[in-house]
From TrEMBL:
UniProt-listed Pfam families: Hydrolase_4 (PF12146)
Protein name: Lysophospholipase, alpha-beta hydrolase superfamily
UniProt keyword annotation of Lipid metabolism present: no
Residue ranges annotated for the Serine aminopeptidase S33 domain, each copy included: 43-274
Entry superkingdom: Bacteria
Lipoprotein recorded as keyword: no
Record keywords, A-Z: Hydrolase
GO molecular function: hydrolase activity
InterPro entries xref list: AB_hydrolase_fold, Hydrolase_4
Length: 333
């Protein structure tokens, strides 16, 4: 169902609603260069303590309109309890990773399939959103057959390199201060604490921290073993980007470990750092939110997607971005 249409930076943006199998309603913002939105579909997935606006910030230079201008049909959902989706976050609301993986993500896959029958699709995700997207594909592997590839921005599964910064932020801030405030409020007041751009469900935060702190990659609700199921799958190509200044949530060692955990596949890891094609050392959030990202590394993402779609039979080649000096790729390792 379409709610409203508006233009952002010359790109057509349509607000849609999708119903999940368990009856919740997800808000999806679609970006396209034309009203037909016939270009190859992309699904952009937000992470913990944020919503879909991470991909279309108010300055208008976000990843969603950037990729729409390149000819893609870009779908940006708010997961349940986030943004304009239902149920709206309120004290005591329980949202689990299982609900996102088994209900929200499949509904979004169905949306892409229904709107773009026969077309390959690609997924892009930030932080824990990449872990949820990956888990949903492991659990519903039929959607992998038509996947052109996955792009992860600062996504990790578990921490492999200890540091005092991680102990300070994860152990003291998230598991200490934030958890105590959450018990009082009945939800994670991430916005007030400066720990996110959207408040969060206590249960969803606890679920995510269990995995991010090295807990077994098993579903905390029904025990499904994602690591075991992954071993039987042929994983699609992946582009893994993280900022040089992101030493906690998307540390380079952790991002590399996540790529390795997904098994043998075509994986490219890119570190966004000053002096290697980037104007700055990017952190966890500004690699999507900073206006300079549209010059520094969004063209790299666009070119990678173009190459992956060109490998899929029946998908026409998209316009190649110009290769000016300031658009060159950042450090690859």
């Amino acid at each position: 169902m379409i709610d409203e249409t508006f233009d952002q930076s010359g790109i057509l943006s349509v607000a849609m609603r999708v119903t999940t199998a368990d009856g919740e309603t997800l808000h999806v913002q679609r970006f396209s260069a034309t009203a037909e939105a016939s270009g190859p579909p992309l699904l952009l997935m937000h992470g913990l303590a944020e919503d879909g606006r991470v991909f279309y910030p108010s300055h208008g230079l976000g990843l969603a309109p950037f990729l729409a201008a390149a000819g893609y049909s870009v779908y940006v959902p708010d997961l349940r309890g986030h943004g304009h989706s239902t149920p709206a976050l309120e004290p005591g609301l329980v949202i689990t990773q299982n609900a996102l993986i088994c209900n929200d993500l499949p509904a979004l896959f169905e949306l892409l399939s229904a709107s773009h029958a026969g077309q390959a699709w690609a997924g892009l995700a930030h932080g824990v959103g990449g872990l949820w997207l990956t888990s949903a594909l492991i659990r519903q592997p039929q959607w992998l057959a038509n996947s052109a590839g996955l792009v992860h921005f600062a996504t990790r599964r578990a921490s492999v390199a200890a540091s005092w910064r991680k102990r300070l932020v994860i152990n003291w801030l998230w598991q200490g201060v934030v958890t105590r405030f959450s018990r009082i409020k009945g939800y994670v007041p991430a916005v007030a604490l400066g720990a996110g751009t959207s408040n969060e469900s206590c249960q969803l935060q606890a679920d995510a921290l269990d995995w991010l702190q090295g807990g077994a990659w098993r579903d905390l609700t029904d025990g499904f073993d994602y690591a075991d199921a992954l071993a039987t799958l042929n994983w699609p190509p992946g582009l893994y980007l993280t900022g040089k200044a992101d030493r906690i949530m998307g540390a380079v060692a952790d991002v590399k470990a996540f790529a390795r955990e997904l098994g043998r596949h075509d994986a490219q890891i890119v570190v966004l750092e000053q002096g290697s094609g980037c104007s700055r050392n990017y952190g966890h959030n500004d690699l999507l939110g900073h206006q300079q990202a549209a010059v520094d590394h969004f063209p790299l993402v666009q070119e990678w997607l173009r190459q992956q779609y060109n490998k899929v039979q029946g998908v026409r080649a998209l316009h190649r971005p110009d290769n000016r000096e300031e658009d060159r790729p950042c450090t690859t390792s």
